[in-house]
Amino acid sequence: MFDALKNLKDKAEDVAEAHGDAIADGLEKAGDFVDDRTGGKHSDKIDTAVDKAQDLVEKLGENGRKR
Known about the structure:
The protein has 67 residues and is mainly α. The protein has one domain (2-66). It has two helices and no strands. It has helices at residues 2-37, 43-66. Helix 1 packs antiparallel against helix 2. It is elongated and about 45 Å long. InterPro entries: Antitoxin_Rv0909/MT0933. Pfam families: MT0933_antitox.
């Protein structure tokens, strides 16, 4: 089971490395959509969540480059 999880992590790193910019753009658009639909009531929380998700994608992409 550990090997399957490691394999999944490796695949996520490869995808983040190859498509990190597109993923980050999609996260930004999704955040903007949700912010619009909620009337801006939760802008700070949405921005924080998008930033953290983008940071995670960037970190995964960096790990993919190191291998």
